[in-house]
Amino acid sequence: MDDRQKSYFIAGTEFPAPPLAAGLYVVATPIGNLKDITLRALETLAAADLVLCEDTRHSATLLDHYGIRTPRKSLHEHNERARIGEVIASIEAGRAIAQISDAGTPLLSDPGFPLVRAVREANLPVFANPGASALLAALASAGLPTDAFGFVGFLPAKSGARANALAALKARADTLVFYESPRRLGDSLAAMAEALGDRPAAVALELTKRFERVERGTLSELAMHFGAGDTKGEAVILVGGAEGVVVEAADWQAALDEALAAGPLRAAVDDITARFGLKRKEVYDAALAKKAED
Fold first, then answer.
1. Among candidates 197, 177, 168, which has minimal Cα distance to 255?
2. Considering Cα of 9, then 53, then 120, then 108, what sign does the dihedral take?
3. How far, in Å, CA of 17 to CA of 80, rounded?
């Protein structure tokens, strides 16, 4: 075990980092502004025995800024599965392992899911250190409904697969949230307008950074705007839900049957409520009745 004094620094002042219990710590990091990190995250990253980084060079900017000297290793989509065995062995040996992505909350369109699943399946503890998320920051500032939303992440790069993915979302009444690269932004907005209709939408860029901006308009307006020039930085696209869609009871109840067969009741209810834009109580009552029939 590492016997060094573990600490971190804020504006030149040193703070101790208390010891951690063994386990995997999934730590959210800033999406742009280095000040958007929690004290708990700093303590965890400083006290851990190892920090797994999507890119160690990128993460060095954050860790060095706060004087965190914890050893680092890469964990990305190309080596994640190869790292799982050694991470599990380290936790079993009593070590605390922290996991971060380049920005925001790991696992949300970032590496981490195979590792977290494997650690859970090994009956070892996983701790969430919540914090910055482009998804939530965009929702909070876009001015679109937040009472129900669905995170889609990145759409397929090929136009045919992208069109199919969007067609499956057309009846969703919740606000849809996508991530997109700057080079595909205009094309994706145009594809959304064609598949979903010309709905109200917003594009959030450079969140928490100096040139942060949120552009609002219809999908066709935004497609024209962002198709005309270069855009820097990963974008968050938010699209208003479908309005006036008549949902047949037989359709959502059949989908509910499938969801209940695939997972727990609460997850099934949440999925069907969001997918069909229904009232949660109606779906919950139907799910309870179906469970009682089994």
1. 168
2. positive
3. 27
Separation of alpha carbons 130 and 133, rounded Å = 9
The amino acid at residue 61 is: T
Q: List Cα–Cα distances, 204 to 46, 57, 223, 284, in angstroms.
A: 32, 26, 14, 34
| Whether 189 contacts 224, CB under 8 Å | no
* Entry pTM: 0.82
Q: Is residue 125 a contact partner of residue 249, using CB atoms and an 8 Å limit?
A: no
pLDDT at 54: 94
Query: First and final CA of the chain: distance in angstroms?
Result: 52
Tell the burial category of 111 from Cβ atoms under 10 Å away from its Cβ (0-12, 13-18, 19+).
buried
| Among candidate residues 255, 212, 219, the one with its CA nearest the CA of residue 237 | 219
Look at residue 18 in the predicted model and tell me its pLDDT.
Answer: 96
The contacts of residue 38 (CB under 8 Å, 6+ apart) are 28, 129, 130, 131
Cβ distance 75 to 69 under 8 Å? no
For the chain, which ranges sit under pLDDT 50?
A: 1
Spatial separation of the C-alpha atoms in residues 203 and 142, rounded to whole Å = 8
Please tell me the predicted confidence (pLDDT) of residue 245: 61
Rg over CA atoms, the chain = 22
Residue 244: the pLDDT is: 66
